[in-house]
Amino acid sequence: MRPFFQLAIGLAVLAAAFTSPARAQDNSFYIVTYVELMPDDITGGTTLLTHYRDVSRKEPGNLRFDVLHEIARPTRFAIVEIWKDKAARDAHNQAATSLQFRDRLKAIEDAPDDERVVNPLYIPPAKTPAQTAAIYVVTHVDVIPPGKDDCMAALKAMSIDTAKDSGNIAYQVLVQDGRSNHFTVLEAWSSKAALDAHAMAAHTRSFREKLSPLAGALYDERLYRGLDRATVTSAAQRPDRCEAARSGARSR
């Protein structure tokens, strides 16, 4: 990948946080995939995911390829991909490394991976790349079909307001392909303290109040760190119990 969410780093951790250095074109292809490993295979699974990320970033047409490790549930990961176009992603899927990855993953995953093709809706300009202490948030927002337009308006306002919050690195809104009432929100914050301040902000509370009557499923917000093999073991041994309460069951 070229520098962004190649973010992952020149520091060894996701490196630029949800802000791609190479701006995606109109026909760019976005995918968010949720992976859940068996509890006794976190270390091996992390190594597998790290290798897959590093190889995928070097493939033709890749604009961004990041793997995030959930804080509250160390067995869960999210893969965020952007490709130049669908053809580039299709070629990636047929590559020997991708076929091998899926074969090996199947042996250690606790549930089938959940892949969501999404389209950019509100993608504000990139900000300063994230640091190794950055917190990433991936939220699945599911509203009843009649509430789709109101939800889009609320998310647009939220993207504008959140960009002004101290410590915000990215707030990107995508809509799921084929399900226009399902949205994915990608956030990056400089620290947990910045995220907590954002959660208490008046515009955030107002957004949640507007969203509540439109909700079609539990507001599914998950907190992550950039995947870094050096810190994965300690993270798995000391899950953050406070943040566990913020993790909801994903709507399928």
Short structural description:
By secondary structure, the chain is of the alpha+beta class.
**Spans of at least 5 consecutive residues with low confidence:** 1-17, 19-25, 229-252
Query: What share of the residues does DSSP label as strand, in percent?
Result: 25-35%
Sequence of strands across the biggest β-sheet: 1-3-2-8-5-7-6-4
Mean pLDDT: 84
Q: Calculate Rg over CA atoms.
A: 17 Å
The CATH architecture designation is 2-Layer Sandwich
Number of strands: 8
CATH class: Alpha Beta
Alpha carbon gap, first and last residue: 30 Å
* Major sheet attributes: 8 strands, antiparallel, barrel
Which fold name corresponds to the CATH topology? Alpha-Beta Plaits
Order of helices and strands: EHEEHHEEHEEHHEHH
Number of domains: 1
**Gross morphology:** globular
Helix content, binned percent: 25-40%
Question: Helical element count?
Answer: 8
Task: Label this structure with key terms.
252 residues; alpha+beta; Alpha-Beta Plaits; 8-stranded antiparallel beta barrel; 8 strands; globular; disordered N terminus; disordered C terminus
General description of the model:
This protein is of the alpha+beta class. It has one domain (29-244): Alpha-Beta Plaits, CATH 3.30.70. It has eight helices and eight strands, in the order E-H-E-E-H-H-E-E-H-E-E-H-H-E-H-H. The longest helix has 16 residues, at 42-57. It starts with 28 loop residues before the first strand and ends in an 8-residue tail after the last helix.
